[in-house]
Amino acid sequence: MPLSEHEQKMLEQLEKQLHEEDPKFADSMGADALRRFSTRHIVLGVLGVIVGLLVLLFGGVQFSNVFVGVLGFLIMGASVYYGTLRGARRMRAPRKGGAAPKAGFLARLEARWDERRREQG
Asked: What is the DSSP letter of 39?
């Protein structure tokens, strides 16, 4: 259900007030706060954990070498850290062909919703 004009004005006033009172918090609550996990990071992190586990088990445990076991554990830890990094969104300049970058998933859903509302009403 869309907001009325009065509700939209009230929301804008609240947003403006929030930015004035606590700009750091307001920025953290923006769209950038909803960055998603990078699929590439997850896949490489899982592969790194598998490699670290293999180094730990076959290098450290089988040959009773503590240093290789610690190395395998460190590889696993670093891989988990890398896998849980959030993907940074980069602002891309428009392409030379004049085509704008594709809209995000939510923007497309919102555009479809607006289009349906216009067709119905």
From this structure: H
Residue 75: closest CA among 54, 101, 106? 54
> Which value, to the nearest 10 degrees, does the dihedral of the CA atoms of residues 100, 103, 109, 110 take?
-70
Tokens of 59: 């290098």
CA gyration radius for the chain?
A: 24
DSSP-H helix ranges across the chain = 5-21, 23-28, 39-54, 66-83, 105-120
Lookup: tokens for 98: 């004049």
Q: Kindly report, residue by residue over 30-57, the tens digit of the pLDDT.
A: 655 445 667 888 999 999 999 999 999 9
Q: Say which residues have a Cβ less than 8 Å from residue 94's Cβ, sequence separation at least 6.
A: 100, 101
| CA separation for the pair 27, 32 (Å, rounded) | 8
Confidence of residue 103 (pLDDT cuts 50, 70, 90): low
